[in-house]
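Milestone 3.1: sequence recovery, worked example.
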């Protein structure tokens, strides 16, 4: 389903020097698979997810998703592809403050194929334990509840792949296990592949398929199409 080859992302430091933040020679995830990438904060894990989602573009390499090279799509094409195929659970939630939990989920649907599927939005919020809080705004919800809304929103359009960026970094330990279990179970039941990045040993322990980021990320030559 997803195959990454020779992916390179550079950045320019204040002195004008070009540095490589990401170098992924090869990485794959199959349909329905649940994989975790574990590594310290600030190492490039979020950059990798943003490249897969088409939010960022690489300096070199391929990201093949269902036979489509995301890197070759226009910005509008990547946005359209993401709304149809990829869900994203952000570390900082990114909920709209003026909208209720239900409205936040339905707003995500407006960019995909399920814009009128109220029943699915309600069902997802019930599934994550917010059936009685769906008409509350983010300020009326706890941090853990906000992250559950973010998880429901990420699954709103029934994506093929859910990307989760440190989804429990801002919640207490009691909510951490609950949120991870909810994400895992909904993805399993809906046959959604899951790629989760974390620095947490507790989160990592809840998965069997774990790869260390420092084993995945390496320096790749930028001026060659082959490694």
């Amino acid at each position: 389903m997803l195959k990454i080859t020779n992916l390179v992302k550079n950045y320019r430091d204040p002195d004008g020097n070009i540095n490589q933040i990401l170098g992924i020679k090869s990485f794959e995830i199959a349909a329905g698979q649940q994989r975790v990438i574990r590594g310290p904060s600030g190492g490039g894990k979020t950059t990798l997810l943003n490249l897969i989602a088409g939010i960022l573009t690489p300096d070199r390499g391929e990201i093949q998703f269902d036979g489509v090279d995301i890197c070759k799509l226009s910005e509008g094409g990547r946005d359209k592809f993401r709304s149809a195929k990829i869900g994203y659970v952000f570390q900082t939630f990114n909920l709209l403050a003026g909208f209720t939990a239900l409205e936040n989920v339905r707003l995500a649907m407006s960019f995909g194929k399920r814009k009128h599927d109220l029943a699915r939005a309600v069902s997802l919020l019930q599934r994550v334990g917010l059936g009685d809080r769906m008409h509350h705004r983010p300020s009326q919800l706890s941090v853990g509840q906000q992250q559950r809304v973010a998880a429901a929103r990420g699954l709103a359009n029934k994506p093929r792949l859910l990307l989760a960026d440190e989804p429990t970094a801002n919640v207490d330990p009691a909510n951490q296990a609950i949120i991870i279990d909810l994400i895992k179970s909904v993805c399993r039941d809906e046959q959604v592949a899951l790629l989760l990045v974390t620095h947490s040993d507790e989160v990592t322990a809840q998965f069997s398929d774990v790869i260390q980021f420092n084993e995945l990320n390496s320096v790749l030559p930028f001026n060659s199409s082959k490694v």
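The radius of gyration is 18 Å. Residues 118 and 147 are 20 Å apart (CA to CA).
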